[in-house]
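Hey, can you fold this?
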Amino acid sequence: MYMQPLNRYIFSYIAVVSFALCLAAELTKTKKDDLVFDGKLCYLPGTVSFELGIAALICLSINQVAGSLFIYSKFSPREKGGYFTVTRSLIVFSWIGFGVAVVLLSAASSMNQSQAFGEGCSTLGSGVAAVW
């Protein structure tokens, strides 16, 4: 009786934490002004944005797996009716959206790691640094 509202609150809390971590990661990401360029080599300092992005990814994963298991157990194929087909299609759609979110979060988080002098940067013909 009390488990369903409790699960909703837990899932909502984890989703809010994941959103807050994503927002904090975006606000603390490496800025263009942080790039140090000495004419030939460049250096990009790391920020806590990478760790915040990974924490958001973990919270999102926990919420996706636990939520899918909860929904699947609630609308299991034991019950007859059309609910299971709709539920299954919504769960598949949810996992597709989750996959897109994982790719975006992973890519954004990986761009905030520290790079030492000479790693990932090179100079172009006009003397402009290009970050790989």
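Oh, and this one too while you're at it.
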Amino acid sequence: MDFSIRAANQDDCRDIARMLMELSEYENMTDQVKISQKDLEQDGFSTKPFFHGIVAEVPEQHKAKEGHTKIGYALYFYSYSSWVGRVIYMENLYVMPEFRGKGIGKALMSKVAQLGLAADCTQLHFTVLDGNKSSLNFYFSQGCLNLTGKMSYQFMCCEGKALERLAQP
């Protein structure tokens, strides 16, 4: 399949928002999505972006049934580990269902890994749902480790009122 991977730009936010909703539907978590296309534009393409992105695109002749040429994306940001130093965190990796199994997901993940190595990162971190067996199998086949089992860490979150209470002196 003919496709290309490139850095996302502000004009891609409409398609990223669309695919983000598709991903949330796939994961049965549409009620968890609180951001809009405008949030993506502001948070990813301001003078101090909170995230970066890449998109997978196909030529017009291979466009999706719905007419889309942007058929996958990955969002990532740089982080730091007090144990290993620089880390790249992949927030999302998504390929539209009709384009899966064609190497696009691997190419997106490979590009994020390349960007991390270019920034002297020592690890690529990401999360995956327990029930997403096909993705888990893919990640394991790439040599990735499940740190939840290996290191017994739990992924935690503090949000809403709890976050506001925590922020009180």
